[in-house]
Structure formats: structure tokens, C-alpha cells
Amino acid sequence: MAPGSTILLLILLFLSVPAAPALGDPGPLEDVVIDRYYIPKICLREVQMGDFIRYHYNGTFKDGKKFDSSYDRGATVAGVVGVGRLITGMDRGLQGMCVNERRHLIVPPHLGYGSIGVAGLIPPDATLYFDVVMLDIWNKNDKLQITTLSKPEHCNRTVENSDFVRYHYNGTLLDGTPFDSSYSKDSTYDTYVGTGWLIKGMDQGLLGMCAGEKRSIIIPPFLAYGEKGYGTAIPPQASLVFSVLLVDFHNPKDGVFLEHLEVPESCKRRAVTGDFIRYHYNGTLMDGTLFDSSYSRNHTYNTYIGKGYIIPGMDQGLQGVCVGERRRVVVPPHLAYGENGAGTKIPGSAVLIFDVHIIDFHNPADPVEIETVYRPEGCNVTTRDRDFVRYHYNCSLLDGTKLFSSHDYEKPQEVTLGTNKVIEGLNSGLLNMCAGERRVLIIPPHLGHGESGARGVPGSAVLRFEVELISMEEGVPEGYLFIWHGDPPANLYEQMDLNKDGEIPADEFSTFIKTQVVEGKGRLMPSSDPEKVIADMFQNQDRNQDGKITSEELKLKSDEDQEKIHEEL
Question: What pTM was computed for the model?
């Protein structure tokens, strides 16, 4: 039946007359005349005998004069249908009504106040005209009506008694009149379930919900605010309709919940208290709202675990992770930011979900980790401090990100060990190697590029080097450019002065040194440029920088060191 259509519903036949009179002149009516002039499209229930109802009305006489109005009193009328508490005409005329339905009722005197009337208000034998709108219907046998509007695909846990919940809601009366909304306050409603802090209907209606679930909960008055109502917004005996979105929930006894999303097959070591860890993360609320992300800053989050530098839940949740692991850490508020929340993005009492990806971790006491991949047989000579080595390497982060490689250049890397030309961890990892040996080195940041990192290397990054020693040359002690294999000549200057002119220019000096090396009497500091080493030696001996060495200028390095000792003594 379409809304707005006019239908005269005669409950019983009129008295026998030649024809039915018009609505405006009903004549002697036998029963109530009902005009259902507005019927809502959706009618979930109709008024029946014994139902409790709440409605508004205007009461007039045939001439339109008003004798009563609930609107004028500012309060709806509540009562029970069919038990004699209403005039008989109203009892009959209200039956079958839907919530929000509107009716015109014509009540004949014998179904109204009869031949007596109401003194000073309704004269005897008055026909009464009522314009009624139905606002609420319920029955003492009603139960909570719960309708699930939407539900997440995955629901690992549902609300139980004693849980603390955070939810949004719109609250309306049964006729759709809004009385409250958490959305208008821009804040969730936060409370415990099953502890008496909520009306009974909400305590029951929230049970079994998943985070992210939406429900419609219709609560009869005896499970809501009953006969007293609540303030001016909720009348007495009002059914309440709540549209609820559960944002999150937890229990005060909850610990951290871990979900291992991806664990590498090979996990040689797991993080423990005191380790320094670098990881990426997305931080969301339980409803999926993103509140923070390291990816958005293009920088890992770096911290110690188990020392109180991060929230307790993350201190616990990162224990035992492997490099490369992806893990979900669900942190209840008492192990996160508590009732106060943090900033504008983390509300009070919020459950936090961290999806983390472990990039690397180390301990400040870690040494270089050395794994020998290949070592030639008959390896008798190994590298020592001050040796000159040539080697190939591939350098990457522990997550596999390639940083540098000597293979990108035309020749191997060259360095004299122990001269601070490479990071400490690499220098250590190249010691005691044979030519042809291959190693994998895991270098912690305190033996690498430290907290600051370097160009292309993040701060506090653990580095992985694959190294292969190509060749090695025996070095010389620190501070020496050339050493004798035996005792130097007693008449060194005379032998160095090849043309016996009493002075030694650079070319004469160079020829002499090269001869000593060829004859195996001494060796230069290993270098990719021996000419430069000889030039440095000459410059050191040419003390007045006049381009030649005199007998007074020429001194052995060992003699110079001895003189310094005497001066100190």
C-alpha cells in the first residue's frame, strides 16, 4: 500500500443505513473509522494486543477545535494496547500500526467518553477526531535484535565480557529520531563490556563482535533506560536503535600478540635484549587507519630492544626476530600509549598493530663474523698487518641490497693493511688470508661506518662483504718506505753516490734503490706506484729541498728513531 494513499478502514460495519455517509459526516458510527494516510515503506512489526506503544497525537472535535495534544505537553504518550488503559476507540484504532505510520481516527461516543464526557473538556456524546503518529512498539517478551551489517573476512577474536571496547555509534529512537552520536564528538565511546558500565542491551549487543564489524542493535526499553528515560533526549519507555562500528577492543590481561608473516628458512641468529635493530614498519589502528610508517620517511627505525627506548609492547614483540623476517605485532594499550594516546593520530586506549620488516640487527659487542668459503690447499703464507693486498669484493646490506662491487671497475681493490684506508671490520677480515682464498664477512656498524653511515650506506647498517684475495706483497713496518733485508752498507753514502761527485740527485737515488730491490738486498713499501714511494723517500732525505742529498742529510730511519728516543730520555 503506497504511502500517502487514503484508505478508509472500517473495522466493523456501520449501523444499517441506506448508504455510507461521507467521512466529514459519518453519522452514527458503530466502530472506529481509520484513515491510514501515511504508511512507511518498511514495516518491521505492527501493533498487537498487549504491546507497549509510544505515540504523539492531536485530538479535536468535528469542528476542528482542539481538546488535547501530546505535542502541546512536549511529551509522547506511552501505554499498553488492548488492556483497557485507553479508551476503547483508541485501543482499536492503534492496532496494526507500524512505527512512523500516521492515521486519522474517528472515534464514536460509545467508544470514547460516552454520554458522560469529561467535565470541562469533552462534552457528552462527543465524536472524537485523532491525528496519530506511531513512534515506538515493544513487548515485554521482546529480545535484543541484532543485525550484522558488515563483517571483516578475517576475525581471529571476538568481544567477550570484561573486554575494553572502542566503538563509534549513531543512536536513534525507533522512529529514526537521533539522540546521540559519537561521530559528532569526533571520538569513540570507550568502555568495558559486561561490567555494568553500559545499559544491559549494549552489554549484550556488543558480545561476539569483531574489530571492524558493523551492527544494528535494537534495544527494548527494559534493556535500556526503561520508565525513566534519560534526560530530554530519550523519553520514558523508548526503544533504542544503535548503529555500531567496533573500532578495536582488548582485555586488560592481554599480552603482545605475534603473527609470523614471513620467516627466512635460514635464521642463524635471533635478536635478544641489548641488540640494536633496524626495521621498517607500518603502524595502524585496529580498524586499519595508518598512524605512522617508516616507509613514508624512506628511513628505517633504529633502536635498541629490551632497554625501554620503545614502547613495552614493541620491546617484547621484537624479541627473537630474524634478519629478513616479517612479523605482525599487536600491542594492547597498556603496553603502548595507554589511556592518553599519543599526539593526534593515536587515540587513548588504542590497540596498535605494527607490520615490521627486519632489515638487520647487531650487538655493540659483536666482532667481525668470518666465514671461509674457499681456502687453497697448502696455504702457508697469509696476510699480516702492513701487507699490500689486492682483492675483489661485493658489498651489500643484510637484506640483499647491493651497495658496491670491485667488479664494477677495471681492476681489483688495493690497500695496505693497517693503514686506516678501509673500515676496521674489512681490515680485520682481510688478515690471515691466503692468495685465492674467499670469505664472507659480516661487519657490525661499530666496525663499519657507524651511526652516521657513509655515502650510499645507511647509518648503523650491518654490512656483508664477499671477498676474494687476489694477491699479496709483504709489507714494511709502520713509518718505513724501505727496509733492508740485512745490515745496510757501512759506506752507504759513497755507494749511493754513483758518479762520486759528492751529491746524490733524485735520478741517482732512484737507480740505487731499484738496484737494491732487484738484488734482493731490500724492499720497498708495497704500492701500486713504486716510483712515488721512491720519490717520497728522496724528499724525506733531501731535508733542505734543494734537489740533492748531501752526506749530512742522509740518515737511516732506524737512526732517526733512536735519536728521538734519546731526546725523549
Answer: 0.75
220, 234 contact by CB (below 8 A): no
Which residue in this structure is represented by grid cell 723517500? 537
Most confident option among 363-377, 468-482, 546-560? 363-377
CATH of the domain at 299: 3.10.50.40
Rounded average pLDDT over 189-203: 96
Q: What gap in Å lies between CA 399 and CA 325, rounded to an integer? A: 10
Q: How big, in percent rounded to 5, are the helix, strand and coil portions of the chain? A: 15, 35, 50
pLDDT digits 0-9 by tens, 55-78: 999 999 999 999 999 999 999 999
Task: Give pLDDT tens digits for 550-559.
Answer: 888 888 776 6
CATH number at residue 526: 1.10.238.10
Query: How would you class 318 by CB atoms within 10 Å of its CB: exposed for 0-12, middle for 13-18, buried for 19 or more?
Result: buried
Whether 417 and 386 have beta carbons less than 8 Å apart is answered as: yes
Q: Which of 410, 482, 398, 498 is nearest to 448 (CA)?
A: 398
Helix axes of 530-541 and 506-518: crossing angle, nearest 10 degrees = 120
Q: How confident is the model at residue 118 (pLDDT cuts 50, 70, 90)?
A: very high
Q: Are 421 and 488 in a shared domain?
A: no
Residues 97 and 178 in one domain: no
| 538 and 441 within one domain | no
The half-sphere exposure of 479 on its side-chain side, counting CA atoms within 13 A, is 5
Active site positions, annotated: 57, 67-68, 87, 113, 130
Going through 220-320 in order, the beta strands assigned E by DSSP cover: 240-250, 257-262, 276-285, 290-293, 301-304
Residue 54 has pLDDT above 90, yes or no: yes
Q: Are 426 and 353 in contact (CB under 8 A)?
A: no
Shared domain for 394 and 448, answered yes or no, is yes
